Amino acid sequence: MKKKKVLAVASLGGHWIQLLRIVKPMEQYYNVVYFTTFKKSKTMVGDNKFHSLMDFNRWNVWKVIPVFFKVLAVIIYERPAVIITTGAAPGLLTIMVGRLFGIKTIWIDSVANVNTLSKCGSLAKLCAKNVYTQWPDLADKKVHYIGNVFGN
Fold this sequence. Notes:
Strand order of the largest sheet: 3-2-1-4-5-6-7
Radius of gyration: 14 Å
Distance between the termini: 35 Å
Structural class: alpha/beta
Helix content: 25-40%
């Protein structure tokens, strides 16, 4: 039986480290394709497929145009069953494009967001199929809590 494909997306830094902690154990059950903003991160994913994209944020939003086309190309080429991201803006854009294709999407807000969801996490509530927080006090009807990457 062919394993389902998961596209795991995150910006470099804490988002990427959290994504690896969440997704690495899934590799035995799913065909994981990694997608991040730093090409040298390929060394952290072994033999798994890997794609890179340009990073952007609200201060250089003009970059969203070339990133959109890169995301679109990767989604069409890889055809994932699920997209999972820990953020930030490139992850949000990827789940937004994925939803246009009917792909299941999962947003996991960063553990660093203790008091409120991140800006991208708040937007993810509008478009992601599933949204998770790593803090129980931030859970509500649309945002679920099931633990954090450091354990309870």
